[in-house]
Amino acid sequence: MGMVHIRHFEFAYRSQGEEPTVEKFKVFYQLQSILGFFSFALRGAKEILISPPKSFHDWKMKFFYNCEEVISVNMEYRDLATIPKEDMKIPRGATWYEKLMALPNRVFGEQVLVAAGMNDKWTEKREDVPVLLLNGEEVALYQSTFPAFASTMGVRPLRGGEKYWFE
Question: Which of 11, 14, 95, 147 ranks highest by number of CB atoms within 10 Å?
Fold first, then answer.
């Protein structure tokens, strides 16, 4: 479930034109360990994930373990029972915090992730970018999370001076 929180947080910020950071993520979530597995607990800030998945039925097929020998840097391992609680001030009134809205959990296609800047599978030489369209008009990307929102992905030409997100 921890990856769901990270992916959703990144999409929520990027789709609303904000840069996601670890410091911002920590405003919403606290690292925790349950039965030896790491995840994130809500911290008390506003909720940004609507309808998280209840379970992952095929999680064992996706689970992997990295032993210490395969990691080339010296990592400091925490004692799972003593993850320190970090007190984070909720930045009410900060533009980036107030701008962020709660969005439903959703698995996206490649074009949505490219448009959000979360996937680099877009040819650099292209003169257009993927956008979310409603009735042929470009709309905010975060709206793609709402299933009832009858939108489609399309492309539009780069605007004067506009650069790709990965440049």
Answer: 11
